[in-house]
Design brief:
This protein is an all-alpha fold. It is built from 15 helices and no strands. Helix 3 runs antiparallel to helix 8 and helix 8 runs antiparallel to helix 9. It is flat and about 55 Å long. The protein starts with 14 loop residues before the first helix and ends with a helix.
Amino acid sequence: MTDINAYDTTPEAEFGDFVALLKPRVMSLVVFTAFVGLVVAPMDVHPFIAFCSVLFIALGGGASGALNMWYDRDIDAVMNRTQSRPIPSGRVEEGAALGLGLVLAVISVMMLGLVANWFAAGFLAFTIFFYAVVYTVWLKRWTPQNIVIGGAAGAFPPMIGWACATGGIGIESLLMFALIFFWTPPHFWALALFMKEDYHKAGVPMLTVTHGRQATRRHIFAYTLVLAPFALWLGLTSIGGPLYMAVAVVLNVAFIRGGWQILRRSEEAAIADGYAVEKRVFKLSLAYLFLHFLALMVQGWMGGW
C-alpha cells in the first residue's frame, strides 16, 4: 500500500523558522532603543537586572512580531517581499505561530514585572496589544494613516527601557518616543514609493495606494521638517550634549535634503532610474535612527551638558 505521506512535500519547520516569526531585524531595533533608554536614564541599574530587562523587552517585541505574522498571513501570501515568511510558505502552522506569540507575550510581561517593576511590565503589555491589535488588526487594513498612528508601537521601547530604570516617564523618554514616532512615516513611505505594487495587490491602504506617489512625496518632506525639532530638542535635555547635537544637526540636514529631493522628483524620473533616490533616502533613514540613539548612548558615557 502506498504511503500517502510519501507525497507530502510540505517543508518541516526548523528552529530558524520560529526565530523568523519573531521578526529579528525589527527586534534588533527594539532591543537597541530599549537598551539606550535604560542606560541613559538617571538611575543606576544593576547589570543583571538591565540584561534581563532588555531580554524580556526583546521577547515582548518577538511576541508582537509572531502575532502580527499570524494575523497577516493572508496578505503576506500575496506580497512578493513576504511570501517566503514561515506561515505563507507553509513551514509553520498558523496555530503554532499564534501559540508562540501568546506564550512569549505572557512570559515577557510577567518576567519584566518581576525583574524590573510592574509599571514597565504594564507598558510592555500595552505595547504588545497596540502593535498586535490596534495596528495589525485595525489600522493597517483600514486607513492610510496606519503607519503614522501605528508607528507608536515601535516608538515605545526606549520609554519602556527608561521605565525599567526609573519606574516612570520623563521628558527625555517622551522625546525619544517622538524621535521614533515622527521618523517612522517618512521611513516607511520611502519604502512604499518603490514597493507600491505589493501593497496594491494585498489591498493594504498605504498612502501610495490611496493618495498616489506625489502626495506621498509631499508627506515625506513634511515629516522630515516636523521630525527635526524633536531630534534637536532631545539634545537640549539632561541626556543630550555636544556630541549628540552635532550628530543630530548633520543627520537632520541630510534627511531634510533627502526629503526635498524626493519631493522634487517626477514619477517619470523615478521610473527611469529605478527609484534610485527613494532607495537612497530609505537607506539613510535606517542610519538616521541608529546613529541618533548611538550618539545618545555615547553621550551618556561621556556626560552631557
